Amino acid sequence: MAVLEQPGTTDHPNTPPPDWHPRTDPDPLLPERAPYRVLGTPTASRLDPALLRRLYAELVRGRRYNRQATALTQQGRLAVYPSSTGQEACQIAAALALDPQDWLFPSYRDTLAVVARGVEPLEALTLLRGDWHNGYDPHIHRVAPLCTPLATQLPHAVGLAHAARLKGDDTVALALVGDGGTSEGDFHEALNFAAVWQAPVVFLVQNNGFAISVPLEKQSAAPSFAHKAVGYGMPGRLVDGNDAPAVYEVLIEALRRARSGGGPTLIEAVTYRIDAHTNADDATRYREQAEVERWRAHDPIALLERELRDRTLIDDEGIREAEAAAEAMAAKLRDEMNTDPVLDPMELFEHVYAERTTQLAEQAAQLSAELDAEEEGSPYPESQER
Amino acid sequence: MTAPSATSIGRKPSTMAQALSRALRDAMAADPAVHVLGEDVGTLGGVFRITDGLAKEFGADRVTDTPLAEAGILGTAVGMAMYGLRPVVEMQFDAFAYPSLEQLISHVARMRNRTRGALPLPITIRVPYGGGIGGVEHHSDSSEAYYLHTPGLHVVTPATVADAYGLLHSAIASDDPVVFLEPKRLYWSKADWSADAPQEVLPLGRAAVRRTGSSATLITYGPSLPVCLEAAELAVAEGWDLEVVDLRSLMPFDDETVCTSVRRTGRAVVVHESSGFGGAGAEIAARVTERCFHHLEAPVLRVAGFDIPYPPPMLERHHLPSADRILDTVARLQWEEN
């Protein structure tokens, strides 16, 4: 048996660990040091007018949607609504950057992205209205259900993107998550799987400053969320989330890379949640109004409007048109919401399994009898027989 | 190589591990949508060698060594299933599957219901489970009750070599998620079974009567079946002719087979090795009592593991239901009052 020699008593050469070699070069993966911006910079002049007008109309519509949905909670038509006012640019520009065959994986605050993708405004609110857990067929617009458990939709996006790549399709998955969601284990696992598999997926962190009441500094000590990309071996991008064309450009580039086999990207969009967490939250308990006002002065719609006006791409009439279109959407949504949904309690047993089990058949019969009794006016089905 | 190769699997007698292996291989050969993913399932063939040879035969794209993260494995399987694949996930050990429970409970079990049938998730989750193999802590859990309490999942566990093939085949073919619990201590159990012979189609949710008897019914599943059969043989000397029902599938639950047996024998004992309190046996005993009350000569009794964390290997034999403990329980079925 060999005896280990004392340190310093041997001429054993000091070399790097055997078989060690540098892996991914981290430098090209690093995000920019300050959020990428386009609006108000010299490069803004090259932006496509049609894109800017489209973004503007969609952002105005998105803000109106948030306002209408919040009003519907006050009328008791929605159980709750997590507003994304202030975050319209991140959500909408990201959704508009997708190709038709791409998939969107939203979190619960991403209703605007879902609507921008083409889902009916009413159907996007089914979860919050409470008539079912999801109101749209995910296949039609390739939008996964709004996901409530934080970050759990991210591995789904990776798996779908991986499957698409294996099939040879040029589908990319876009997964949305908030700053709070980055603390979840599923965020880590999803990014790691995506990088190892080089899955065509783009992760967009909307850093809106708060996880309900918990501010950024209590959530993460990372230099930025975009820097986390480097640890997984994928590029990170940092973008001003209130600069719609900047978000759009960064997304287009990441989607292109994913589509061409270049693997995943992690993007952090720096933004702010102007409203409280939901209508049921009181934001004055944890933040100063002055902070909110600073962000109101960096409003995504105002930033875009200034660019459009400066370049005379829009006039008062054009703005009125965008607002009228948004108003029409809100009026339609209001009308639809004022009609009570038609509920069939028996549907509760319909989709649990492909085929109803014996147990569920028995329970369905029980509920059916209770419903019959309710119709006849007694809450006790059996008492009528006695 | 000591592990079985695909060509040797057809030879008699076969082990449960070989039958499972063959079921996976046949499913992959029959349907290109079937993908296997998990820890060490590729090059190594799985720590129990159930996926042995699959990577070589079907390639790394279909038999994937994943990063070591169970939530990620199941979470990505969800996305793969959404895109039309039929993932078969391997959780390396029962207790290692717990990080995946959020994905399982919040998404796998609910996606079909959430989307009104638009996104069914045909995922099979293979979990080597149970004790009796001398495993150190976290390698011997019986986790079926956690799964059973989650609507939207099927929970299946084979106890024989032929069932291992037939049930895994049906699990993979199912359009619903199936938690497929593989009794570790039966992996090397042998039977005269050949994969090359015509296979019986085994629909999920049908129990099997493994031994007919008239005195009392032992209701069991998975790793406890051989123990029950041993107890039934020993019981003959005591004058008891025990019927043994192997549930095979805990969800869907075969009330009909169970109740037909109990109504005939008038007595029932539920046997499983997981802890008794809040376990599958509690549900089974309640169901039998509700449905067979007027046929019962005695309360339905349970033989289960103690309500303790799974013991260290040198003590596990005291925890696991034994034939003696089963017979002691059968003796308490109020025979003298007849």
Structural class by sheet pairing and helices of chain A:
alpha/beta
By CATH reckoning, the class of the largest domain in chain B would read Alpha Beta
**Helical content of chain A, roughly?**
40-55%
Kindly report the average pLDDT value of chain B. Answer: 95
Give a short account of the largest sheet of chain B: 7 strands, mixed
The fold-level CATH name of the largest domain in chain B is: Rossmann fold
Q: Rough shape of chain A?
A: globular
Enumerate how many helices of chain B there are, as a single number.
12
Detailed description of the structure:
The complex is a heterodimer of chains A (386) and B (338). Chain A has 386 residues and is an alpha/beta fold. Chain A folds into 2 domains: 302 residues, Rossmann fold, CATH 3.40.50.970; 40 residues, no CATH class. In chain A, 42% of the residues lie in helices and 8% in strands. Chain A contains 14 helices and 7 strands. A 5-stranded parallel β-sheet of chain A has the order 1-2-3-7-6, sandwiched between helices. Chain A is globular and about 95 Å long. The mean pLDDT of chain A is 94. Chain B is of the alpha/beta class and 338 residues long. Chain B folds into 2 domains: 186 residues, Rossmann fold (3-Layer(aba) Sandwich); 124 residues, Rossmann fold. In chain B, the strands form 3 sheets. In chain B, strands 3-2-4-5-7-6-12 form a 7-stranded mixed β-sheet, sandwiched between helices. A 5-stranded mixed β-sheet of chain B has the order 9-11-10-13-14, with helices on both faces. Chains A and B meet through helix 6 and helix 7 of A and helix 3, helix 4 and helix 5 of B.
